[in-house]
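Structure tokens please, single chain.
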Amino acid sequence: MKKLFSTAFSDNAVHFSMLGLRLVLGIFMILNHGWPKLMNFAHLAQRFSDPLGVGKSTSLGMAVFAEVFCSVFLILGLFTRLALIPLIILGAVIVFKIHIHDGSGKLELPVFYLVGYLVLMFCGPGRVSIDGLIGK
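Here you go.
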């Protein structure tokens, strides 16, 4: 009970919190967004949004790269900050170009992902990661 109300800072709690955040963001991004896009790439490429003006197939390819491959690196904690760059860009495009006028209903989830990615970018992957093992 004493720990519950403590204001003390715990390194281990932060490192395991970063692990939890990496796992939740990475797994949910792959399962709910990336994998369905990858499995239906040919069908989605015809009608996918092109907010950057690079072409629908290219936009979809960049989204799949970020949502699947960068999320795998995020889960592993390998090259974490580098893997977060495409995910942050994707999140920013979704928030500020795709859903900006849709109201909070469609905007809420992308904002949560984006904020989670930004927290990981600033705090790092934590000690419980491949980056953490390499850094020793």
